[in-house]
Design brief:
With 178 residues, this protein is mainly α. The protein has one domain: de novo design (two linked rop proteins), CATH 1.20.1440. 58% of the residues lie in helices and 7% in strands. The protein is built from six helices and three strands; from the N terminus they run αααααβαββ. The protein has a three-stranded antiparallel sheet. Helix 1 runs antiparallel to helix 2. The two termini are 41 Å apart. The relative contact order is 0.10. This is Translation machinery-associated protein 16. It comes from Elaphomyces granulatus.
Amino acid sequence: MPRNLYKVQKLISKKRGKLDALHENSRDSKRLQRASARNDKLARAAAATLKARQVHVDRVSFFQECLKDIPGNLCLMDLAELVEKYIHRDASDIEQLQRERRKGRPPSKREEAIGQRTVGEEKEFMTGFWMPDLIQDEVRTKLLAWNGIWSSLSTIKFIRFTRDGAMRPSTFPPTGLS
């Protein structure tokens, strides 16, 4: 049985001639409904996957942009500064939102979301912040040549970097504390 909505429509139209001449509760009508529901479900799953991946793509693209500004080799202190810069990248937005808020009013949803994300990234930095291994020259050259696509990140080596300077290898895509 065809899985695709287009294929189902094509088969039914070959059989009947017109799709709009279907009875409401006919087998062909139900087939079209199932195929449409399947397409919707697949589209929602694909959108959720893209949204989940976008967080990691944004993180790697931030380090790519920072790497363009740094000409030489990086030490552990430079890595820690880059991670701190990444974690507090929206500090000016939070300050502006706090200034705009009237006294005694609760924080806006955007302010809460940025604050929660910052707290989560701080915790991740304590246990091991997932990032490209910018110490290695090979990784830096690959990162500078990276085209911004999720699937091409598999060629880059990643690490977990902690606040105290410890580094351990990590996997791509990031799962838990790998």
